[in-house]
């Protein structure tokens, strides 16, 4: 299953064909599981995945393979399929536990990459709204980074890179949400601290242009014109074609200011690095 992101789903699709074409499958189902061989029980799990909306029965069959034939090749495959089945049912804690057990037990196997990817997904797929606890996002980022670093040449790593960028963007979105909250209440110092985090730590995300514009708003409200001008200069250099630069330019020019680097603030340091290429 290594190097194929949709492996478990592909197995489930294949299982449907096996189910429709298998001879005597109903007779197999009627037999006590301890009288069946590992492959027959595993096939029951595949059939259940393919034909039932919930994966609960499939997980049971895969667990029985592991219990009845603990040192077999089928037991190894059944464990990774348990992780997939739990994830299909959005039972992320058990999916993570099964995936981690596979990694701990079979670290050198090809499917260890898929297990690591499923473990990362168990965090990532719970990131569904900005207002939730960001601890899950940090855990997702760590787990996705592990996939990228440990299995760089796999399709799992390529998918993990895309998800990593989205999770990273999610963290920036949270900072922006809090910053806007403070800004609406005229808590300018608290707001600019949040926008500063986006500019310094999440500069590769889609939120940087707005963060720079919000910094102009905050600094002008605090009477810190040099910092506002410098934020405008960075915004103009990197995001001149955006509405955020147009609005920021209007804010500055209304007060007789221009978007240009001024002073020696943290923004001026960023300007020198980004625009001038001066790192020392």
UniProtKB/TrEMBL annotation:
Keywords: Cell outer membrane, Lipoprotein, Membrane, Palmitate, Signal
Gene3D superfamilies in the record: Tetratricopeptide repeat domain
Signal peptide start-end: 1-24
The Outer membrane lipoprotein BamD-like domain, residue ranges: 37-231
Subcellular location: Cell outer membrane
Tree of life domain: Bacteria
SUPFAM superfamilies, A to Z: TPR-like (SSF48452)
One Pfam family this sequence matches: YfiO
Topology relative to the membrane: Lipid-anchor
Family, per entry: Belongs to the BamD family.
Described purpose of this protein according to its UniProt entry: Part of the outer membrane protein assembly complex, which is involved in assembly and insertion of beta-barrel proteins into the outer membrane.
Quaternary structure, from the entry: Part of the Bam complex.
Protein name per its UniProtKB record: Outer membrane protein assembly factor BamD
Gene source species: Albidovulum marisflavi
């Amino acid at each position: 299953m290594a190097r194929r992101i949709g492996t478990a789903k592909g197995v489930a699709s294949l299982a449907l064909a096996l189910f429709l074409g298998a001879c005597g499958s109903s007779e197999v189902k009627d037999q006590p599981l301890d009288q069946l061989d590992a492959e027959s029980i595993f096939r029951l799990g595949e059939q259940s995945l393919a034909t039932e909306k919930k994966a609960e029965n499939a997980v049971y069959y895969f667990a029985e393979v592991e219990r009845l034939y603990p040192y077999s090749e089928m037991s190894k495959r059944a464990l990774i399929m348990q992780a997939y089945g739990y994830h299909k049912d959005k039972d992320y804690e058990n999916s993570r536990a099964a995936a981690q057990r596979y990694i701990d037990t079979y670290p050198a196997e090809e499917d260890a990459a898929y297990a690591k990817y499923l473990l990362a997904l168990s965090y990532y797929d719970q990131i569904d709204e900005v207002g939730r606890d960001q601890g899950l996002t940090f855990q997702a980022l760590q787990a996705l980074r592990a996939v990228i670093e440990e299995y760089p040449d796999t399709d799992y790593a390529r998918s993990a890179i895309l998800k990593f960028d989205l999770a990273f963007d999610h963290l920036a979105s949270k900072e922006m949400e809090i910053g806007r909250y403070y800004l609406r209440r005229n808590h300018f110092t608290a707001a600019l601290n949040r926008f500063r985090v986006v500019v310094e730590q999440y500069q590769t995300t889609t939120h940087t242009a707005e963060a720079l514009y919000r910094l102009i708003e905050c600094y002008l409200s605090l009477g810190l014109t040099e910092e506002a001008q410098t934020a405008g200069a960075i915004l103009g250099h990197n995001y001149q074609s955006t509405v955020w630069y147009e609005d920021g330019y209007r804010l500055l020019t209304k007060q007789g200011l221009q978007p240009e680097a001024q002073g020696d603030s943290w923004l001026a340091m960023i300007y020198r690095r980004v625009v001038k290429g001066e790192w020392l």
